[in-house]
Amino acid sequence: MKRGFIVPVPTGQNLTRWATDVHNYLRDFDNKAVEPQTILMQHQIGGEKATVDGLLMWDTAGYPVVSHDGAWHQLTMADGHAVLTQDTSITAAAADTAYAVQFDAPVFANNISLDPTYPTRIVFEGGGLYRVSFTAQISSTSSSTVEFRFWPKVNGSNVSGSTMVASLHNNGSTIVVSRDSIFQFAANDYLEAMWATDSTSGFLEAHASTAYAPASPSVTMSISRVQQ
Prior knowledge:
Layout: H1 15-28, E1 56-59, E2 63-68, E3 71-74, E4 81-86, E5 90-91, E6 99-100, E7 108-110, E8 112-114, E9 122-124, E10 128-140, E11 146-154, E12 157-158, E13 164-168, E14 174-185, E15 190-197, E16 202-204, E17 219-227
Antiparallel strand pairs: 1-2, 2-3, 4-7, 4-17, 5-16, 6-15, 8-9, 9-15, 10-14, 10-16, 10-17, 11-12, 11-13, 11-15
């Protein structure tokens, strides 16, 4: 038996259940399969009760859970995140026309990537709830009011009620617009960041670095999984 092995204690009067727990521990701690000092997390097989706070188990759906206030709560593992930017300015060839933002290669990413065939598509390898933060720098070469619209598209369909609208009426000015939302994605779903303007004088502006400040991308998107 490995050093550090902890036999599970009974959590109720059901000794048959406890015997099953001990059996599972012995199976998981097979001397030939487990390295010294390694402790495997017990897998749930159904019916486990969160009677004590702080119990850790492995859910059969593929993630760890911890007991708290009489319930099992999922722990999010450190995967499913990305930061994407577009380091050049983005223009619209036509007014009142939807365009998908094409991002540069991710600054860093885990289980999220750009589709090599359709580089505007951000592909999610694992399902779950994701926090998506989107920021764009809008600018215009017109003194008239120019309107911009931004919205997400999932698997080729617009997300209902999601459009962000902003406008500029000062020639040469730049403002930042942003939104933070939660999305539910299944494995292999893809997300696109869409935009449009009612005038081709409106564009998404990137700024070059200066002697005292780094460059500024025209668009930034950060993604992190908050629940599997």
